[in-house]
Amino acid sequence: MSPASRVSPVSRTAPALDVDAILDDPGTRIIVCCGSGGVGKTTTAAALGLRAAERGRSVVVLTVDPAKRLAQAMGLTELDNTPRRVDGVGDGGELHAMMLDMKRTFDEIIEAHADADRARQILTNPFYQSLSSSFSGTQEYMAMEKLGQLRRSGDWDLIVVDTPPSRSALDFLDAPERLGRFLDGRLIRILTAPAKAGGRSAFKLINAGFGVVTGILTKVLGAQVLRDIQMFVSALDAVFGGFRQRAEQTYQLLQAPGTAFLVVAAPERDAMREASYFVERLAQERMPLAGVVVNRVHLSPAAALSSARSSAAAEDLEARGEHELTAAVLRLHAGRMQLAAREQRQREHFTSAHPTVPITQVPAMPEDVHDLAGLRQIGDLLASPPPESRATA
Amino acid sequence: MSEATGKRFSGQDGGAEARDTDWDGVRLHVVSGKGGTGKTTVAAALALALAAGGRKVLLVEVEGRQGIAQVFDLPPLPYEERKIAVAPGGGDVYALAIDPEEAMLEYLEMFYGMKRMGKALTRMGVVDFATTIAPGLRDVLVTGKTSEAVRRRDKSGRRVYDAIVMDAPPTGRIARFLNVTQEVAGLARMGPVKNHADLVRGVLTSPETAVHFVTLLEEMPVQETLDGIAEMRASGLPAGGVFINMVRPAGLPESALQAASGSRFDPAELALGLKAAGLADGAADATLIAEALAEEVTEHALRTELEKRERLTLESAGTHRYDLPLLPDGADLAGLYELAEALRDQGAA
Known about the structure:
The complex is a heterodimer.
Chain A: H1 19-24, E1 30-34, H2 41-54, E2 58-63, H3 68-73, E3 84-85, E4 94-99, H4 102-113, H5 116-123, H6 126-132, H7 138-153, E5 158-162, H8 171-184, H9 186-197, H10 204-221, H11 223-255, E6 259-265, H12 269-284, E7 289-297, H13 307-320, H14 324-353, E8 359-363, H15 372-383
Parallel strand pairs in A: 1-5, 1-6, 2-4, 2-5, 6-7, 7-8
Antiparallel strand pairs in A: 3-4
Helix pairs in contact in A: 2-15, 4-5, 4-7, 5-11, 7-8, 7-11, 8-11, 9-10, 9-11, 10-11, 12-14, 13-14
Chain B: H1 5-8, E1 28-33, H2 39-51, E2 56-61, H3 67-71, E3 82-86, E4 92-97, H4 100-112, H5 115-124, H6 126-133, H7 137-151, E5 163-167, H8 171-178, H9 180-185, H10 192-204, E6 209-215, H11 219-234, E7 239-247, H12 254-261, H13 267-276, H14 282-315, E8 321-325, H15 333-345
Parallel strand pairs in B: 1-5, 1-6, 2-4, 2-5, 6-7, 7-8
Antiparallel strand pairs in B: 3-4
Helix pairs in contact in B: 2-15, 4-6, 4-7, 7-10, 8-11, 11-14, 12-14, 13-14
C-alpha cells in the first residue's frame, strides 16, 4: 500500500483525541471507560484519574475489576467499596480509588429504603442473597447505582469509572431498562397478587388466572423457590419505585454534557469491531462519546525501514552467509513492521466507518504497570501519543 | 501422540481413528481464558483438531457474542446445531449458539411438554425473568443444554457427538458459571431446578470434562490462569490444559538477547551489516538506523525475558501446556487450521 493509494487519505486520518482538554474542563464530571475484556480499560481509567488529579482535580476512580495489581500500583493494599486516598499524587489535586462491592451496595440500598423490619426480611431472603451476589445483571446495575451515589455526594469533581466486563460490555446501559421491564411486567403482579389481593373478592377472577401460572411455576421451579421469590418481591415492592427512578436518573446523568465516554480498544480485529459496536450503540442511546483509546499499539523507532526492504535485505545477507546478527535483527524488524501495518489497517477500517471519532493511542509496553510512575507514563502517552509509525513507507 | 503428523490427518479407515492424546476419555472441553487472549479462536481450533480424522464435534457458544460466526467468517448462528466446517481427514464441526430463552423453552417442552405454555410464560415475562434476572438460572440453562449434547445418543444408542467444545465465559467468571449447583443454591435448595442443576453438575465434574485455559505470556493472563486452575481444583471441577496463545518465534540468537537485556548490545556490528546489505546511505545513516533497530532489539529482549519468566510460572500449575504460534496474518480461517494442526502435533487432540 503506497501513500498514493486510491482511497482518499483524508477519510483515514482520525482527529486526535485531546485527553487533557477533557480532563481540564471543569464541566467534565464523569468519564466512563468502556470496551471489551482484556483491552486495558481499568488501567486506562486509573491512568486518566491520576493525570486529572495531578492537573489539579479532585478525582475518584471507581473500578469493577478486582485487579489486585492495580491496587498495589496505587499503593493500596486492596480496593473496597469505600473510596481510599492514593498517596504520592503531585500538584494540588487528589485521587481516591475504590472497587465496587455489588452485594454491599445492594444491601445499602435496601437498608436506606426500607424500614428496619422489612430490610431484615429482604436481606435474609435466600432469593435476595443469591440475586445480590450474582454476576448476571446485578453488577451492571450496582455499578450504575454507585456512580449515581458518587455523583450525588458532590465530594468529587471528577469520577472516572470503568465498566463491568460483561458479555456485552454495554449491558450496564440496559440495566435500568431491564429492571423497568421486570417491574412493569405482568410477572411481578402475578407474584405479588396473592399477598396483595388477600381476601378481596374483586380480584378473585384475576387470581384464578394467576393461579394457573403460579401452578406452573411451582411445577417448574418448586414451591419453595416460588415462595422465596414471592416473599422477596412483595417485601421489595415498596423499595422498588425509588430504585427504578434512581436508575433512570443515572441513565440521564450519563447522557448529560458533563459525561465523557471513552471507548477503549486494542488494534485487533475483534476489539476494533467491538469498539465500532460501542460507538454506534452510544450514539443510539445519545450518550456523549469523547473518543477512542487504542491501547497496545506496536510502533517502531525505525519505521522508515519498511517490512519489504527489511526482509529482502535479510534474505540477501542470509544468502551471502554474512552478518548473521544483522539478518536476524532485520527479520525481527520486518515482523514488527508487518504487525504495525496490520494494526494500522484495523484502525483505518474503524476510522473509515467513523471518520469523526477522535482517537488516541498508547504503545504496547513490555511489562505491566507496577506503580504510580507507570500509570503516570501511560497518562502522558494518552495525552500526547508518539507519532504514528509510517508502517507503509 | 506417537503418530507422525501426516498420519494424524490421514484417517485411512474413513471412520474415526483411534488415537492417543492427552485428553482421551474427555468429551466436554470447556475453554476459558482472560479476555483478549483469543479464547474463541483456540476453542475453534480445538474443535477442528478433535474432529480431524472423521469425528463429529459440536462447538458451543454461550455468551451471545456470535464469536464463532466471526472466527469462521459466517453470518450469525441461530439456536440450531449446524455444520460449519470440515476438519482435515474428513471430520465435521457443528456449531451451536445457545440462547438462554430458547434453551428455557426447549427445557420446558422437553421435561414438561409445555410448548404452548412456554409461549404464555414468555408473554408474562417469566422467561425474561428467568434468563436475565433470576440468579444462576441462565447459567444452568446454558450448561444444561451443553450437558444434554454431551449425553445425547442416536437411535442405535451411539453418542451423537464425539466431543463438545465450549467457548466458555472468561476466567473471572468461569468458576461461578460452572458451579451451577452452588449458583442456584440460594434459589432452589430442592425441587426441579435443583435436580436439573445436580444432573448438570454430574456431567461437569466427571472425568469426561476438562476445563482448559487460554493465556498469553503476559503477567495478568498468566496470573488469572493460575487463579482459575486453583479455583477449578477447589470447587471439584476438572482443570484441563493451558493453551499458550500467540507465541512468537525466538527471533534472535541467545547471545544477542543476553547482550540486549543487559544493555550491552553494540549497534556498531549492526551498522556494518546494514551497509553490507545496502540499506544505509553512508556511515552516519547506518549508525542512525542501527541505533533505532538496537532499541527494538532491547525491547524484544526484555519481552523475551518476561515471557520466559511467565512460562516458568505456568509450569507451577502442573498441567499439560500447548504452544500456539502467533499468526502473522491474524486468526483467519487458514490460521485456524494451522492452529488445529499445532494442537494435534502436541497431543492436545
